[in-house]
Amino acid sequence: MESKFRLTSREKVYTLGNEMLFMKNKLTNRLVSMVIFPIILSLFSMSYPLNINLHAVQPNDFVYPADSNPFGRQQLKAWLAEWWKLSLAMSAEDHPYFIDPTTGKDNTKNSSKCFVGEDKLNNVLFLGVPPVEDKFPVRTCDVPAGKAIFLPIESSQCDYGTEGISNENDLTACAKAGNEGVAASVSLDGVKADYQVEENRIMTDFFNITMNNKLMGDYSGTFEALSEGYTLLLKPLTAGDHKLSYAVSVVNPVDPSYDYSQNATYNLVVK
Fold first, then answer.
1. How many whole angstroms separate alpha carbon 235 and alpha carbon 148?
2. Where are the alpha helices (H) located in 36-91, listed in sequence order?
3. What was the pLDDT predicted at 164?
4. Does residue 255 form part of some domain?
């Protein structure tokens, strides 16, 4: 089964007992409101020798370029893979975009529930991203001082559990299929970043992913996987309130079922 959030050309609805899991018919990493059987999440702290230190970031210098030091493409590849592993492994109740209309629990309104994990050695937080159905999502997030923030503003992931994938060429084509025709912009506190879309297009190396939380439907297992997407690494911010915004649109030249647009806003409270 395909390990993308956009599964087919039609929206899928999975019934789990009396609960329902809604899957969007897109191939990005956007999550929908969901209720899933919980699993145990063991956060994996990646072992890299470098650390990010807090410093005053100028308004026009708040994003690490994809080829910058201390973090470059190899680091971004590893983080993109880890972001996917954490997002698919964590329990529904802990996910940043979990909403349970029965109990009223709504993690989108919890400022401490914005992240899917962390690279503790490098002081990098992995920010959760909103579902594609939410065209203008707004969140408030508590951010510890001294932390950089990583997120894929648009990405997809495939694995050998996907029907029809039998070799590396199939897997690569699947991971790339939804990422054509992407336009994106990023701003912080009203100032636009010099975000070059193609320069920030990252393909991971092959990695193993375990599907235990039924996020992709009623199946589980460990598969070799591949992800591609457009990543953003935000530098550590000074204490206080900041507003991160990004806009993404996809006009796929081959398959319009991949098309969508989204304007997301994060009110980041750094302390």
1. 5
2. 73-89
3. 87
4. yes
Cis peptide before 38 (omega within 30 of 0): no
Q: Establish if 47 belongs to a structural domain.
A: no
**Per-residue model confidence (pLDDT) at position 23:** 32
Asked, for residue 52, whether it belongs to a domain, the answer is no
Q: What mean pLDDT comes out for the span 199-209?
A: 94
Note if the pTM is more than 0.85: no
Domain of 229, in residue numbers: 12-38+62-270
Please work out, in degrees rounded to the nearest 5, the angle formed at the alpha carbon of residue 176 by the alpha carbons of 178 and 117. Answer: 85
3-state SS record for 142-205: EECCCCEEEEEEEEEEEECCCCCCCCHHHHHHHHHHCCCCEEEEEEECCEECCCCCHHHEEECC
Question: Which of 22-36, 172-186, 218-232 is the least confident region?
Answer: 22-36
**Phi then psi for 67, rounded to 5 degrees?**
-105, 20
- Split into its structural domains, the chain has a count of 1
Question: What is the pLDDT of the chain when averaged over all its residues?
Answer: 79
